[in-house]
Write a structure and sequence with these properties.
CATH superfamily of the largest domain: Aldehyde Dehydrogenase, Chain A, domain 1
Family: Belongs to the LuxC family.
CATH class of the largest domain: Alpha Beta
CATH architecture of the largest domain: 3-Layer(aba) Sandwich
Number of domains: 2
Largest sheet: 7 strands, mixed
Distance between the termini: 55 Å
Keywords: NADP, Oxidoreductase
GO biological process, one term: bioluminescence
Shape: globular
Radius of gyration: 23 Å
Catalytic activity: a long-chain fatty aldehyde + NADP(+) + CoA = a long-chain fatty acyl-CoA + NADPH + H(+)
Number of strands: 16
Structural class: alpha/beta
Number of helices: 16
Oligomer: single chain
Organism: Saccharothrix saharensis
Strand content: 15-25%
Strand order of the largest sheet: 11-12-13-10-9-14-15
């Protein structure tokens, strides 16, 4: 089935493209007349403006209700295809979708709208003398291999009644079109406001053509890819960027004593196993107060083995396997020369636990490597993160009482945009201001009526 999505009004022929993973291929079509696409999206935007925001929420909730069922035909097909292209197991992908789709229920969407806008219905017209107006068209450039990732930005754009041009990620191209096909069954006016397609990263001609139809741009990717898009954004366009990010965990002595090493290990294993540790929200290192570090690491080996049994890790390509084997060798060399270091790992590459007393340069990422670094105290853990402040995103903070409140504030000042409990790092809600900015309010402009006698009339 095609990985692109074209609305009913898009009748012009396009250019076919093929995305491949090994022997598997998926096909789609890319528009050639972007001016016509822009005209169609402008007309679709006018239809969106007539939809009450609560109707949009209801439609998205109805779609998610279908997709929440693991045996839903469209979901099963998308999961199978995603497993082929990402290498993740179907169970890992299902868990990722469970978490992501759970954030798109009506209650969550209304909570996010209320937090950022005060009153969701300001998107429908003036409320108390103020109204919010979304962009006509958003260009969303997605990347990465995290299943369901495009859903958040796609839904946010539709909530503010913007039409969307979505560049699907080559590393997980199936979800967007499949989700939009279901959305079309539920509420065609929403699905007809989206064009989802693909072009090569270095195809500046198509990027510029798509940019020419947009009032706002959302970019996902590494620092280099985001910089290339940023350089082409026009001065009148809103711009939102999700570049390279890193996440860490912290466990204080008080938190470890309160919950016990086995439970803390279970929490850390969950954080390091979801998405096979490929999400930006996944921790690269857990910094644990030294008197509990070894006990937690010992329990962590059992917990990681249990996670691998319940949610099998995906296939690792040859390059990633080489990187992972090298990381193990470095850790084992450290363990051979230091009483403070140790490595636990099966014969295969399903998981790895490393205990160390130094935060080595971060090399490689993902593939279920749970690194425990012993630190003297929580302040030392925060100091260890300072060199990575520019890219800091998410911290799983295991602390209690006043220490929790003080450390959370320090992490916020350092650069973290999210602090969660250990075990919840990969499950952000829609209420989270993604990467530290209001992602719904950031898409709208406001108009206020003031100093006008009509405001006082009933």
């Amino acid at each position: 089935m095609t990985v692109s999505w074209m609305p009913d009004w898009q009748t012009a022929d396009g250019v076919p493209f093929t995305l491949a993973s090994g022997v598997h291929e998926w096909r789609g079509v890319r528009p050639t007349d972007w001016a016509a696409v822009g005209d169609g999206l402008r007309a679709a935007h006018e239809e969106l403006r007539r939809l009450p925001v609560r109707r949009i929420v209801e439609a998205i909730d109805a779609v998610v209700d279908l997709w929440a069922k693991r045996d839903f035909t469209a979901r099963r097909a998308a999961v199978r295809d995603a497993a082929l292209v990402t290498g993740m197991s179907e169970e890992t992908i299902d868990r990722a979708l469970d978490a992501e789709l759970g954030n798109l229920r009506a209650e969550s969407l209304l909570a996010a709208l209320t937090r950022e806008l005060g009153d969701p219905e300001v998107l429908d017209g003036f409320r108390g003398g103020t109204t919010a107006v979304g962009p006509r068209t958003v260009l969303a450039v997605f990347s990465g291999n995290v299943p369901g990732l495009p859903a958040r930005s796609l839904v946010r754009a539709l909530l503010v009644k913007a039409s969307v041009i979505a560049k699907i990620p080559a590393k997980e191209p199936h979800f967007t079109a499949a989700f939009l096909r279901t959305l079309h069954d539920v509420e065609p006016r929403l699905a007809d406001a989206v064009v989802a397609t693909y072009w090569d990263r270095d195809d500046d001609e198509v990027l510029d053509a798509a940019l020419g139809q947009a009032d706002a741009v959302i970019a996902y990717g590494g620092d280099e890819a985001c910089a290339a898009i940023r350089a082409r954004v026009r001065s009148h366009q809103l711009y939102e960027e999700h570049g390279h990010k890193l996440s860490f965990g912290i466990v204080s002595a008080e938190y470890a004593a309160l919950h016990g090493p086995a439970e803390v290990a279970r929490q850390i294993a969950a954080d390091c196993s979801e998405f096979d540790q490929h999400a930006c929200l996944s921790p690269q290192v857990y910094l644990v107060q030294e008197e509990h570090a070894r006990a937690i690491a010992e329990h962590l080996a059992t917990a990681m083995r249990r996670e691998a049994r319940d949610s099998p890790p995906g296939a690792i390509d040859a390059q990633d396997a080489t990187v992972l084997q090298h990381r193990r060798l470095v850790a084992e060399w450290r363990a051979a020369t230091s009483d403070a270091s140790e490595v636990w790992a099966p014969d295969g590459l399903e998981w790895t636990v490393v205990l160390d007393d130094a935060l080595m340069p971060l090399s490689g990422a993902g593939n279920r490597v749970a690194r425990i670094v012993a630190v003297p105290d929580v302040d030392a853990a925060v100091d260890a993160m300072r060199p990575f402040a520019k890219h800091l995103q998410n911290v799983g903070l295991g602390a209690v009482g006043e220490q929790f409140r003080r450390t959370a504030r320090e992490l916020a000042v350092l650069g973290a945009s999210r602090v969660s409990a250990p075990g919840s790092m990969t499950k952000p809600s829609m209420v989270w201001r993604h990467d530290g900015q209001p992602r719904i309010a950031g898409l709208v402009r406001w108009c206020d009526v003031e100093l006008h006698p009509e405001l006082d009339r009933p």
